[in-house]
Amino acid sequence: MTPRILDGKATADAILAELKERAGRLAASGGRPPGLAAVLVGDNPASKVYVGSKVRACANLGFYSERVERPASATTREILEIVRGLNDNPAIDGILVQLPLPAQVDSMAVLSAVDPSKDVDGFHPINVGNLVLDRPGFVPCTPAGIMELLRRHDIALRGKRAVVVGRSAIVGKPMAMLLLREHATVTICHSRTKDLEAVCREADILVAAIGKPAFVTEDFIKPGAVVVDVGINRVSDPDEARRLFGGDERRIAQVLEKGSTLVGDVLPTAMWEKSSWYTPVPGGVGPLTIAMLMANTLKARMERQG
Ligand code: GUN
Question: Active site includes 121?
Fold first, then answer.
C-alpha cells in the first residue's frame, strides 16, 4: 500500500492564512488586535524555541504579543503575580505559560490562576471540564490541531476504532475526548497496558503520544490504519538513523551534516509500509499546534468586548 501524507505544514499554512484574513478584517474595522502573552520560566532550550515560534506567528498574523521571561529560580508566588497581571491586562486575550515549569513552581496552581476566558492552551480545570462535558471552551492546541488535520483530509471517525497511546493532560486525554466527540470508539493505552501491541493493532486510527523515539513498530499497526505521530525526538547516531529511516539517504545525510535529525514515536519505515495515511515528523502534527494556538487567541479576542 502506498500511504498518503497528512501534511501538517500545508494544513497549518491554510489555517494561518484564514486567521490572517479574519485578523485583517478586524483591523480594517478599527478593532484592537488579538493579544497573546507567553510566559517562559527558566532556560529549557526547547521551550525557548517554542515560545520564539509562537511570538513570531503572532507577528506574522498582525497579533499583539508579549513575552514575559523569568529565571529558573522563580517562585510560584512570582509566577502567580505575573499571571494575575496578565488576567487584568486589557491588551491581552490569551495567556500561555510554557511547560514544563521548574520543579519548585506549582504548575497546577499557575495553570489554575489563568483566567479561563484567556486560557488559550486549554489547561485550566474549567476548560478541561468543558471539554469532557462537550461544552464550549478552549481545547488544547495539539489535539485540536490533529482533529483539524483529520477533518481537512476527510478522514472518517464515526464508529471507527481509535487508540491513543499516552495519557498526558496535554495530548492523550484531550485527544481521546475529541475522538469520542466525533463518535469514534476510543481506547487510551499507557506504559502499564497489557499486550499493547495487540490493542494498537485493533486501531483504525492510531495516535502515538508517548515521547519515546520510534517506539511504535510494524507489530503495532493494522494494515491500512491512519497513524498520527505526536512525538518529536532527536536522533544523532548515524547507525540509529539508518535503522529508523531505512533507505532514506536524506535523513542519514542530515545526521552526518547537521549532527541530528528528528524522529517521532513511530518507526518511520513501519508507518510508510503499513498505514493508509500518516503524519510525517517533522511537518506533521508540530506546525498545527501553533496554528491552533493562534486560532484560540483570535477566538478569545472575538469573545472579549472592546
Ligand atoms: N509544553 C509542551 N507542549 C506545550 C503546549 O502545548 N503548551 C504549553 N504552554 N507548553 C507546552
Answer: yes
